[in-house]
Amino acid sequence: MTEFPGFGSMLARLLxxxxxxxxxxxxxxxxxxxxxxxxxxxxxxxxGLLRRLAPGLGFHxxxxxxxxxxVVPEDLAPLDAAxxxxxxxxxxxxxxxxxxxxxxxxxxxxxxxQEERLSGFxxxxxxxxxxxxxxxxxxxxxxxxLNWMGMAKTLAVVTPTYxxxxxxxxxxxxxxELTPRLVTDFATLLGIDIREVAALAGxxxxxxxxxxxxxxxxxxxLLWEARRLSAAQARHVADLARSMRGDSRDGYLxxxxxx
Length: 259
Hints:
Elements: H1 7-17, H2 22-29, H3 33-40, H4 47-57, H5 61-67, H6 87-94, H7 99-111, H8 133-142, H9 148-158, H10 165-173, H11 180-190, H12 194-201, H13 214-225, H14 231-244
């Protein structure tokens, strides 16, 4: 099992990949160079520092907390864990629509009122998550309201990865190493640069894959925006997405984008 070498080492990989210097990152993040160097040297980053680093690196803050192995603050977590029942269908039906339909769904999601958080977000864990590249990526997907079955369904439709739900548990446990194909497809759905995920995971991409198709880019955006929805709101958007498909709504094509 490949383990993550620590957040400082991962930050160094990101800086190296982006050809970004300590001073430039510090300027972007509103930090001092010494604060950045301390993290690179192995100091555990605090909550405030991670929140500042995120935009400087072009990452969502929640993903940096996961990479650092820290508890995700409540305000960065999805609103409603029960939305995981409906969110995969929002994405799977949306990618079967033409671009205007996908954008209409996104606009609807963004227009829905922000509801009150009724409980803390606690994704179900059927097995322990390993401190490994696979474990970290699976946790990122969990914080996008996808359980194992949701991952299996969504990735099968949006990417060439077609795995059983149980296999995502194997990846989460660190018993299956990430391959270039998995890195590419996970990064696509997470909306993170494929080369950065490969660098973080220590996976060599022998060939740089082509940019994600527009449907896949929109899938990642919809998945991210759905984090602010309650279960009832997510069901409403899922029902609308399904109705917009019209006569073609009875099934799903796999690996749809770009085909």
